[in-house]
Amino acid sequence: MDALVVSPGRCGGVEFVRDHPEPSPAAGEVTIRVELAGICSTDLEIARGYMEFRSVPGHEFVGSVVAGSDALQGKRVVGEINCVCSACDMCRAGLGTHCRNRTVLGIAGRDGAFAQYVTLPERNCHVVPDEVGDRQAVVVEPLAAAVQVVKQHPVDESTRVAVMGVGRLGALIAQVLTLQGCRLEAIDRSPRALAFAQQRGIRTVHADEVVPQAEHDLVVESTGSPAGLDLAVRLVRPRGTIVLKSTYAGAAELNLAPIVVNEIRLVGNRCGPFPDALELLRTDQVEVEGLISGEYPLERGAEAFAAAADPQNVKILLRPGPP
Prior knowledge:
Blueprint: E1 3-6, E2 14-17, E3 29-39, H1 41-47, E4 60-67, E5 76-79, E6 82-83, H2 89-92, E7 103-105, E8 109-110, E9 117-121, E10 125-127, H3 134-137, H4 140-152, E11 160-164, H5 170-178, E12 183-188, H6 191-199, E13 203-206, E14 216-221, H7 226-235, E15 236-244, H8 257-261, E16 265-268, H9 274-282, E17 292-297, H10 301-309, E18 315-319
Parallel strand pairs: 7-8, 11-12, 11-14, 12-13, 14-15, 15-16, 17-18
Antiparallel strand pairs: 1-2, 3-4, 3-9, 3-18, 4-5, 5-10, 6-7
Helix pairs in contact: 4-5, 4-9
């Protein structure tokens, strides 16, 4: 089958191949024909060496089930990325996303969605409502991750929040936060990202004009840059919270003293609830189309990755060709 594989020496860090083996579903898994997939910051970092993954990347997708389930046959689905054992201590405690033995779609131990076909456990799949188009459904995974921010850290109209980086993921986080009525500002360097936030009624600040005053109750760091965490520490109030969403291949340097002195909570935040994300899309509470900067066929994957790495673009999509 056609696929993109990680190849750090190549342009964009990926290579298009026409003879990649089709995935073989295990018991309880379905085979999905990928209709559309999205490139995220994690994919770009994987192409640079993050997680030392060397197979098919991609975990944001929408597709149609072609085998493995009578109930789902022919249905459009999106899929949760953590494939878990259901037997370890984390799974038994209800923390399957932290399963000790998990594989993660397109990130660790499992081929991802930048291919014509992908396999997932049937229980990972969620049917896409008819009201939600493919170009909306492709962002269900990151939108669920955005919802997880407010699941972990509820906010209200009195909460002062800054979202640092309102590109691919940050724009979704900012929209979810807006629905909570908090006192929100979005920080970025990209004119396109800032313009999108402004169109959604969000107060924006160019990153070069930020005055680092420690006055925010919650700072969401989604810049994708190690330097973002340093600024986040300077923006959050004493005993405030920083939510980390960025992943990157390199190491980050951090002065721990202000975190200790100001008793700042530093919290990792990852996957979230797919049903909530699908409902937000079904009811048109989150805008997606304005984030999409381009759509490429799979054979132009290297070009698509280069476009996704360009800060002038926001969301780049990949469309595999027919089998």
